[in-house]
Design brief:
Order of helices and strands: HEHEHEEEEEEEEEEHHHHHHHHHHHHHHH
Structural class: alpha+beta
Strand order of the largest sheet: 3-2-5-10-7-8
Length: about 550
């Protein structure tokens, strides 16, 4: 599977490289003479055409001064020409280029191009910023004069000058457009999904992934001249500086890696990655500032910066590979392919810069993007799994909480029921004792009045009096302890000096009985109960602000 992906990505680069060789005719084959003349003023084509031949020198290479204007004289051997229409492709950042040739009527025809010339001023519209067209004329040779003005490029040599067959170029351009459209379509889809993931989860790793893909895509659109249409076609300075979108690719990569290592390495290692990310960000801004003053120097510094970053990324792969999770290993493995593509492109461009070299960079990036997508998918699935675990844990805790609340509610209901039963028993006991007391009192009066036999009455009185004991209250305390098993123990522990009567009063208060109700049950007047409460407060050491009922009810 991996081999298939690799071949599918690298095949366009191979085909493009092959086609470039087919459409390009080497200088010795089609150019019979290449000369240049550097004058002291901006001459017209008629003036240059009439200059003596000895003023023109053979051109191999030339160091260009800033804002310098010079002329090239190119003689095309018509017998070597395979077709009638060609482009001269300089493959250099030459600002302004005029091409002059005589038509069959002997009139000089002017063509114009250049990287800083808006499309509306160019002779031929479209993707030809560094190309200028010419037509093979009648006869054995075609003589071309080119006036070149430069502000950007520092050096020009014959390796950078190609003669490109227009038909072959158009065929290759269509192929390139198709490949880049597929590539951009994939990147747009990936960016869209990562934007949705970032907005839904708030995880910055998806944001960095999206920015990484965007900056890389901007560079490739620049490299393959997609920015030479629409708005950018008539604002060439803006298009030119889009090259430095590649400068920020390592910046986003470092922050992406820093975010990815959040749970994989210790804080010390992650802090080193963060410091490096900050350093790379500062260097990227510095390169952009340099480029604003000197474009060529900015490009050179950017190439060195890219090579250094590539070496450091390889070192990071070696140092971290065994210490990180499979997700990070996938990302680091993909980074190796990007480094290989970047390094190949830079080295080949130092030898001879061509647009085709950009395919090595793009192929490495595309493979890396596949690895990144797999890693992002792992990250997303892990986040979903962790989220599900968290939700299940919360649901389990919530269920436990609800179960405990239901159990507590059930216990409260049981306690309330028992307290009601206990209060009922207390009332029944008090009524029973009151009845016994009333009967005893009545019989005693009868005895005093001699209305019944004294012996029988005394026997009844004795039996009833024997029932008036503390057994009822012992029964009450038994039931009370069942409802509040720890109450007396905690009460005695906290207030050890209380009498039996005072403890009984505390039990009545625990049942939320009023002073009047307690007086009725105990057959005492309310004032007596009030005095007992006052003594109880003193023994418990309560101040005026403390409520006796609340204190007793809080004993649990």
């Amino acid at each position: 599977m991996f081999t298939i992906i690799l071949l599918a990505v690298l095949l366009p680069a191979k085909l493009f490289s092959k086609e470039k060789k087919e459409l390009r005719q080497e200088l010795p084959e089609i150019i019979s003479k290449l000369q240049f003349y550097k004058g002291h003023e901006d001459l017209s084509v008629d003036s240059v055409h009439n200059l003596p031949e000895n003023l023109f020198k053979e051109f191999t290479s030339y160091t260009i001064s800033e804002k310098e204007v010079f002329w090239l004289k190119i003689v095309i051997d018509n017998q070597q020409a395979a077709t009638d229409e060609y482009f001269i492709h300089f493959n250099s950042h030459l600002d302004d280029i005029y091409l002059y040739q005589k038509n069959d009527n002997g009139v000089w025809i002017e063509e114009r191009s250049g990287v800083l010339i808006p499309e509306k001023l160019k002779t031929v519209k479209g993707f030809i910023k560094d190309k200028i067209p010419f037509t093979i004329s009648n006869g054995s040779s075609t003589i071309l004069y080119l006036k070149i003005e430069n502000q950007i490029e520092k050096y020009l040599d014959t390796k950078k000058i190609w003669i490109v067959d227009s038909k072959s170029f158009n065929r290759i351009f269509i192929q390139t457009k198709q490949i880049q459209s597929i590539f951009l379509g994939i990147v747009v889809i990936l960016c869209f999904f990562n934007l949705l993931l970032f907005l839904s989860t708030g995880t910055r790793i998806y944001l960095y992934y999206m920015l990484y893909a965007i900056f890389s895509s901007i560079y490739f659109i620049y490299a393959f001249q997609y920015f030479e249409t629409g708005y950018f076609a008539n604002h060439p300075h803006v298009s030119l500086y889009l090259f430095f979108s590649a400068t920020f690719i390592p910046v986003v990569y470092c922050w992406f890696l820093y975010e990815l290592l959040k749970t994989d390495v210790n804080d010390f290692v992650r802090s080193i990655v963060k410091k490096y990310a900050i350093t790379v960000s500062a260097f990227a801004l510095l390169i952009l500032i340099i480029a604003l003053f000197d474009y060529t120097t900015g490009v050179l510094v950017d190439d060195i910066y890219s090579i250094v970053n590539s070496i450091i990324v390889v070192l990071l792969v070696v140092l971290l590979f065994r210490k990180v999770s499979n997700t990070v290993k996938i990302v680091l493995s993909g980074s190796v392919f990007l480094v290989a593509g970047v390094f190949s492109t830079i080295v080949l461009n130092f030898q001879n810069e061509t647009p085709g070299h950009g395919y090595f960079f793009q192929s490495g990036f595309f493979i890396e993007l596949i690895f990144f997508t797999v890693a992002i998918n792992f990250t997303y699935q892990n986040e979903r799994l962790e989220k599900l675990k968290f939700e299940l844990k919360n649901a389990s805790l919530e269920n436990e909480k609800l179960a405990k609340e239901r159990e507590a509610q059930k216990l409260r209901e049981q306690i309330n029921l028992k307290e009601r039963d206990l209060a009922t028993k207390v009332f029944a006991i008090s009524q029973k004792e009151m009845l016994i007391k009333n009967v005893t009192s009545h019989l005693e009066k009868q005895v005093q009045n001699n209305s019944v036999k004294v012996k029988d009455i005394k026997e009844v009185i004795s039996n009833l009096s024997s029932k008036m004991n503390d057994n009822h209250w012992e029964e009450f305390e038994t039931h009370f302890i069942q409802v509040h098993p720890d109450f007396y123990r905690l009460l005695n522990k906290k207030y050890p000096g209380l009498t039996r009567t005072e403890r009984k009063l505390c039990a009545f208060i625990k049942l939320n009985l009023t002073t009047k109700e307690i007086a009725g049950i105990t057959k005492r007047n309310p004032e007596s109960i009030h005095m007992t409460r006052c003594r109880l407060r003193r023994k418990m050491g309560l101040n005026k602000s403390e409520n006796l009922d609340n204190v007793i009810n809080n004993i649990k």
